[in-house]
Design brief:
Blueprint: E1 4-16, E2 19-26, E3 40-49, E4 51-56, E5 59-64, E6 74-82, H1 87-93, E7 96-101, H2 112-117, E8 127-135, H3 140-143, E9 149-155, H4 160-174, E10 182-189, H5 198-207, E11 212-218, H6 223-226, E12 232-233, H7 236-243, H8 264-270, E13 276-281, H9 284-297, E14 300-303
Parallel strand pairs: 9-10, 9-13, 10-11, 11-12, 13-14
Antiparallel strand pairs: 1-2, 1-8, 2-7, 3-6, 3-8, 4-5
Helix pairs in contact: 7-9
Length: about 300
């Protein structure tokens, strides 16, 4: 059975009040297990505000778990996260990197693990335990073998496994082992700062060490965003819909617009459904729509599901 080890957070990059990138090292400098890009690890915090599940009709929601005195209970919680670091980065720097969101229910109750996670203080309360095992089959070897084209569609922090994959592919290409297929990454977040790995992905695309196209987008655009030639507008699933000439989903959503440096006709020519496997990770509603689109177009569909 995998052991629980103690680590600590050494870098915390707050992209917005509810979105961060952080790095974890082992407390004693021990090496992390080897892994494949796209896999995940279980993390644990011991001082979490506990909640309990309540069913009301067909709806399930989470409410604070109170003790007899009416105070919210504290306790340990374990949560799994995809790694956004690439395997080569971990091998070189002995660290793991994560791209995480502060979860919040519709009634405002914070996620019991992420509430504690976002209280981490570098140099203070920076302890974060991890299970010494990295697992999962959401990898290119398992999900994309035999396909000429891999289309990655991510919403929010669902970018994490794809950031790991793209960085690893680029590293291997630098070592003389460029992949033979084509890779396209289409992803969206609410705002420009929350894109997280936007500049790194575009840097890898510009280097042209392998056949890779990046299509980033924001769903809450500002005037700055509308003037950015390399940035699209709209949710990831709606951008995908526009590529395949399907109407956008969601009356309140902004109309999808591709980055001006990625003409939609170029993307339509690039994405041949017969030779493409579509991988997706992120918001459950967005993933469900992406699955529908894949079905409509006859594309092989794979999603990250724990």
């Amino acid at each position: 059975m995998a052991e629980l080890k103690t680590g600590r957070v050494v870098e915390w990059q707050r992209l917005s009040p509810s979105l961060s990138i952080f790095r974890l090292i082992d407390n004693q400098g021990r090496p992390f297990p080897s892994y494949k890009a796209g896999q995940y690890i279980a993390l644990r915090r011991d001082d979490c505000l506990l909640t309990k599940k309540v069913k009301e009709g067909d709806e399930i929601r989470y409410v604070p778990d109170l003790d007899p005195e009416g105070k919210q209970r504290h306790g340990p919680v374990t949560h799994s996260y995809s790694l956004s670091s690439a395997p080569f980065e971990t091998a070189l720097g002995n660290l793991l990197e994560f791209y995480v969101v502060l979860e919040k229910g519709v009634d405002g109750v914070l996620g019991r693990f992420t509430e504690s996670l976002f209280r981490i203080d570098e140099g203070g309360d920076d302890k974060l335990a991890y299970v010494e095992r990295i697992v999962g089959d959401f990898t290119l070897e398992k999900r994309a073998a035999g396909f000429e084209h891999v289309l990655m569609v991510a919403s929010g922090t669902g970018l994490a496994p794809f950031a790991s994959m793209v960085k690893q592919l680029d590293h291997e290409a630098q070592q003389g082992a460029a992949p033979k297929g084509r890779f396209t990454l289409l992803y969206a977040n609410r705002t420009y700062p929350e894109l997280g790995y936007h500049e790194k992905m575009l840097e890898i695309e510009a280097a042209k060490r392998f056949d890779f196209v990046c299509v980033p987008s924001v769903s809450r655009p500002t005037s700055r965003d509308r003037g950015d030639l390399r940035l699209g507008i709209g949710r990831a699933n709606n951008l995908l819909r526009s590529i395949f000439r399907l109407p956008p989903l969601g009356a309140a959503a902004v109309p999808p617009v591709m980055p001006r440096d990625k003409p939609i006709e170029m993307l339509r020519e690039r994405i041949d459904p017969r030779r493409t496997v579509l991988l997706t990770c992120g918001n459950p509603q967005a993933m469900a729509d992406v699955a529908f689109i894949a079905g409509q177009m006859g594309m092989k569909f794979e999603k990250e599901d724990w």
